[in-house]
Amino acid sequence: MRASEHAWFNGRIVPRERADPSVASNTLHLGISVFDGIMAYRNGGAWNLHRGREHVERFHAGAARMGLRPGWTVDQVLDGIGELLGTLPARTHYIRPIAYRTAPEVFFHVDNDSASFAVFAVPVGRDADDPYTCQLSPIRRVSHHAIPASWKVSGAYANSFLAEEAARAAGFDTGLMLDQRGRVAEASSSNVFFVTADGLVTPRLDGDVFPGITRATILEIARRSDLAVIERDVWPAELASVEAALLCGTLSEIRHLGRIGDHRYDSGNHPVVRRLIDQFRSLTHA
Prior knowledge:
globular; aminotransferase; branched-chain-amino-acid transaminase activity; transferase; 2 domains; BCAT-like_C; D-amino Acid Aminotransferase, Chain A, domain 1; B_amino_transII
């Protein structure tokens, strides 16, 4: 789907293409930018910017760490998102804030005051119920010792792109990546959970697993529901014995998995998965 016609750019609403970087910007050449993603759910006549402040705080912190000095406070970015929502059709949108360099400065050492902030939107669906399939990806998760996952540096997502492309070429929807030690890490743009005989299991946050906000939401729902939750190392050999599996992320929400490699699951009918989906949707439809 096409992005919104307008963007919030450095404090004002402008036509989207007015926010373009220079072809000589190191944002294009080196991937020096930071982004985030937020769901703006349209419920009745109102917007629900799901956990919007947490997303913008993470975005703001990542931009600062990459030397993209935030010229706008968290509250100002949230106000800018509110302005942008006022220009959009009344339907659910994915909101994309991004900090980047617009100036024609192609090398590593640039003017640290040349950073720009923009926010645009893309209309999206919600509440998808069809099962997803995962390839056990040949692409390994880039180490956090190289690029910290939690900063959401744009250039690091070439790793996710390669995993997604490999999966689609092999007939899957997405790829489930292993870390450098061979442990299950995450899908190309989603965290992963497994239902086992011991409870709800997800890879622990050790640096190579992205600390997703939707992941945190699922953990909160599970604990409120008195589900046993275990954050630990997960190994590929375990995939044959899990009862069900799901992916979660801002855009994907919760997607139950029908297949990981040669392993097939009826995750969509598993009571634990259905409970998590139903309770998540009660939050996003509020």
